[in-house]
Amino acid sequence: MSPLSSKTIQFMRFPLAAAIVFQHSYKVITSAKSPEVADTLTWQSLDFMRGFFSWVISSPALIAYGLIAGYLFFQHWEEVESLPLKWNWKRYADKIYRRLFSLFLPYIVWNLLTAWYMHSPITWHIFWDYSVWGQDRTNIFSLPLCPTCAPIDNPFWFVRDLFIISLCAPIIYPVVRYGKRWSVLLAVIMFVFQVPHFLPSQTLVASFMIGAYLSVNQLDLAQVARKVWHPALWIVVALSWVMLYTDGIADQLVPPIIKVILTLFYFYSATVIAEKKTWATPAWLAEASIVIYAGHAGLGVLNKCTVWATTIIPDSASGGLIAVRYFLAPTMCIAIFLIVYRLIYPSFIAKVLSGKCPPIKLPKSVKKKINR
User: Fold this and answer.
1) What pLDDT, in 10s, does the model give residues 335-367?
2) CA separation, residue 254 to residues 24, 57, 120, 263, 321 (Å)
3) Which of 67, 93, 192, 244 has its CA 20 to 30 A from that of 36?
């Protein structure tokens, strides 16, 4: 991995977490909608604004997380790297062991914190009951969208799925190794059509595969983002026109494709900024991203900030102030977590909550068995 790609990934962690918070801030201004203003230009403008920031600008965040995870999984895979990378069970075991501390441990801790915060017996089902949420969601073929794995364990379902996908690396490797560019096309098709519906998360599987493809074939993330972004921009323009003049199936197909291309824009913009900025992204800021993601919904901080923002700017305020309220609530939420994490950084608690807890060193006897 080139220094620029490393700086790009480090720089992106915090903006991606902030984007997730803005995704969940869509309802911050909903209470301002009344029958009297529902059809007015003011409400239409507010509705467009929140849709643009919560559904368009922020939508590629999850794809970007998955792509980064797949890319990093196969980094430092061989001492003497070949092209493409050869499968290595020793490195696979080491990667999974490390993800026990970076993914599985925070998953358990944050779910327990969420259960403690909610004080409800049903929350203790979080580790085995996945049938409560998402039953009515379907893909383009009207098949249930993962009804057996729709997560009730709010908000860390994606970490659970990401850990499962990492375990499936022996299956993903031959697909991206021998499928070459066809594996990327397969991943895009999986994401656009949301199939097959029995996977943990089609979005994470598809994005993890693309990241793995880049890493296994030793393609630099920053260079790829710069190379494909400009032609992808014209695809966005063309697809936008398709949505304007067609109905039905195009409305389902085009938005996911645009999300994929917007993800490229994320990486392209990040590479430009990372290359030009003269300061390094603080380690604590990058590590705080997972705390922001986990706590803003799980601990109800975003909901509380929404209440505060509504108290400061009530529903009776002007449209301009309601727009300010939309940005105020998530900004307050993010600021709270940054302040708290900065105060506890770099304590052991901070490392556990952020998934940066160093792995426990294995006994030499265990290491010898793994090396065999």
Assistant:
1) 999 999 999 998 888 888 888 887 777 666 655
2) 22, 15, 40, 14, 33
3) 244
